[in-house]
Write a structure and sequence with these properties.
The protein has about 280 residues and is an alpha/beta fold. It is about 45% helix and about 20% strand. Strands 1, 2, 3, 4, 5, 8, 9, 10 and 11 form a 9-stranded mixed sheet that branches. Strands 6-7 form a two-stranded antiparallel ribbon.
Length: about 280
């Protein structure tokens, strides 16, 4: 039965995805406003289809361009964050060549970064700054790789170059620096029950795992509960530079994940009445 369910989900995923591609291509070609919001609607449908139940704590920055920095557990993070808020992603250049998933990343106006080559890296930083100044929300995974979902790796400050630019001026005429918002993504349950450390690799894609076999096993594993926490934004200027910013963002994301995995984060937010809500 789980495999039959997984097969039905996979077929529905392919039908929905292939059917949505012309719509988003048209929106991008004519620069329609819906090109920014359609991916969120699309991923919310996919989240329901995959059985992802997402609890959101806190609120994303939405009054200017923002660089969101999150821990990375695998490809499901893309679906989860996009179902939560309209965003684009900063991805490594090789993602662009992946079958279907690379096209989906391009349709979501991802910024592709080729690491290790100064010219391309400089061009990517320029594109990031321009997108942030235009008011876009961009998601960066500064660990530089994905994990098993049980920990947060050190954040690489070299990936936060765009955090040192501005997004215009405020009412007093001072430069308004790019807000950097830490985001914790925590895989906390399966089939409505708490998820143990040993079960997270069923959903976490990391190391040398093959993409398609892992996707199949994730679908067979069944529904999952996720907590996404948006923390207070930071700026490089306020905290004393890019390296300090990376350290503080890493610590904040790690604390959020620990709370969620321990089951304390959601209950604390409920008690405080700070706006926890179900998205999907």
């Amino acid at each position: 039965m789980p495999r039959l369910r997984a097969f039905a989900i996979l077929v529905a995923f392919l039908v929905l995805t292939l059917g949505s591609i012309p719509w988003q291509l048209y929106s991008l070609h004519f620069r329609l406003k819906r090109r920014k919001t359609f991916p969120t609607r699309f991923h919310r449908i996919l989240a329901k289809l995959f059985g992802l139940r997402i609890t959101v704590i806190g609120a994303p920055v939405n009054d200017c361009g923002v660089l969101m920095v999150a821990n990375h557990t695998g490809y499901l993070d893309i679906l989860i964050l996009s179902a939560t808020v309209p965003v684009s992603f900063v991805a490594k250049s090789e993602v662009k060549s992946w079958p279907l998933f690379g096209l989906m990343a391009q349709l979501q106006e991802s910024v592709f970064v080729e690491r290790g080559r100064r010219i391309q890296a400089g061009e990517a930083r320029h594109e990031l700054r321009e997108r942030l100044r235009a008011g876009d929300a961009l998601v960066l995974f500064p660990e530089g790789t994905s994990t098993d979902g049980n920990r947060v790796l050190p954040f690489k400050s070299s990936l936060l170059g765009a955090a040192e630019s501005d997004v215009g001026v405020d009412d007093t005429g001072h430069r308004r620096m790019v807000p950097v918002q830490p985001v914790s993504i925590s895989y906390v349950g399966m089939h409505g029950m708490p998820m143990g450390r040993e079960n997270r690799p069923l959903y976490a894609w990391y190391g040398d795992m093959e993409l398609l076999p892992h996707l199949w096993e994730s679908l067979v594993a069944g529904p999952m509960d996720v907590v996404v926490e948006f923390h207070d934004p930071l700026t490089a200027e306020a905290v004393g530079g890019r390296k300090k910013l990376a350290q503080l963002a890493e610590q904040t994301v790690r604390r959020g994940q620990v709370r969620a995995l321990n089951g304390s984060g959601v209950h604390a937010e409920k008690k405080a009445g700070s706006g926890e809500k179900k998205v999907v």
